[in-house]
Amino acid sequence: MIDQQTPVRRGAARLPVRPRTGRFLVLAVVFVCAACGLVYELELVALASYLIGDSVTQASVVLSVMVFAMGIGSLLAKRLRCRAAVGFGLIEAALALTGGTSALVLHASFAWLGESRHALVCFSLAIGILIGAEIPLLMTLIQRVDRQDAGGAVADLFAADYVGALVGGLAFPFLLLPVMGQLTGALFTGGVNAVAGGALVLWVFRRDLRASERRLLIVVNAVVIALLATATVLVDDFERAARRAVYGAEVRVAERTGVQEVVLTGTGRGSLDLYLDGRLRVSSRDEYRFHEALVHPAMKGTHRRVLILGGGDGLAAREVLRYPDVTSVVVVELDPAVTRLARTDPALSRLNGHAYEDPRLSTATADAFTWLRAARGRFDVVISDLPDPGITAGSKLYAAEFYGLVAGVLEPGGRLVVHAGSPAGRPETFWTVDASVRASGLRTRPYRVRGRLTGSAAGQDRRAGAVPRDWGFVLAARHAPGPLGLDPRAPELATLGERDLRVARHGAERAGERGVPPSTLVHPRYREER
């Protein structure tokens, strides 16, 4: 029993509203607080996945720490039940400030300190304790509002709590993120939280407050709301400063799409960098080495029809279109913002040789896995220019089932080439890609190209530290792909020659970690980059 019958009658007599109205207002605040609490939780998971990587691990850390902290908060709240109204008001103000500013502090920690794991755990713990303290105090308050047994009060409170959590969980991805973004969305949620908690205590339970407690709550809530409002006004300036701290002073394009954050820095062949979700995707200093090694070994033989999976930047397409006998190129890119930049940004379109102006090239905006399941045509060459394996969101694009779909669109003599990560830096990942391709029934020829120029502080991957100094690829076909080589009609290349390809094959073999099992949809085996 949470409270005795006598306090129930006394609480009801002191309310400025009828008991039924008071009960409705308490349950409405439970609904709002539950929605805000889940938004904070999802915000931490989303930020952890974006800033730190390894979304499965980060989600597990956030959720487990928060649930543990909620238990601590529930125990600590027992000491506040004698002054439930003022205790609840202060807790909601603290929760609004902590949850509302969590995104800002995590971004600042990542941008200026280069590390946000400790801040993530601290916020998960603090928010969990404050959320855990809410329900015991609300239980006390609702029993003082209306004559109701403890079982009925529990049922009502948890019903409002669960429905609020549903609304908050749906509002976060479908309303707050697309309309306000991570930072403003968290600040707005904190403001709603502060107003709801403060209004309930200062109006419905104002007769339970001493004059000093009333003044304290008014001042605390005013300060919290003022801080959140000020941060909301300055959030754009903060984002620009944080972006400069992460990417340098030459940020030209920074766009949060429905898929990822796209950042373009620099203006020319010696300085242009493309980052997707903080990962260095293209550096103009050495991208030609990568794309020559990716494309040209696969073009040895018939290559009239070519499919490029990913590669929305147009750089792989640039190399393919250098062959005059290519009749059609299809680029399947998930994020239309990347293909739009490749078309319209002067520096990027110059780097890709204005590939999107070539009438032989067409694009499809789709997930590569979904597109392949519905594909009807066949291709002589399939080029997989996707984000590095080991990124949880893209693990299915490096699974054996995915390569089975690719095999289904290959002509009998067709070839597949896959960017498979760094054999030197992540050998287990590289050989897992090779095993996954072989599991689809294709024969493989792995190879490795060294000499990557990017790797200094100026060309650092903001998520994974220094960029590896080599690239690994897997060439595959229904039958043995044959020795690595170039097509006799291949255009003149900047760095890649027959001797380089012979070295590339032996380099991959020396990196060896053969014998690893393939990755599948049911059992993904890639370790996410950090």
From TrEMBL:
Residues 226-478 form the PABS domain. Residues 506-530 are annotated as: Disordered. The keyword Transferase applies. The active site is at D385 (proton acceptor). Its main location: membrane. It comes from the Bacteria. SUPFAM superfamilies: MFS general substrate transporter, S-adenosyl-L-methionine-dependent methyltransferases. Belongs to the spermidine/spermine synthase family. Catalyzes the irreversible transfer of a propylamine group from the amino donor S-adenosylmethioninamine (decarboxy-AdoMet) to putrescine (1,4-diaminobutane) to yield spermidine. This is Polyamine aminopropyltransferase. It comes from Streptomyces argenteolus. The lineage of its organism: Bacteria, Bacillati, Actinomycetota, Actinomycetes, Kitasatosporales.
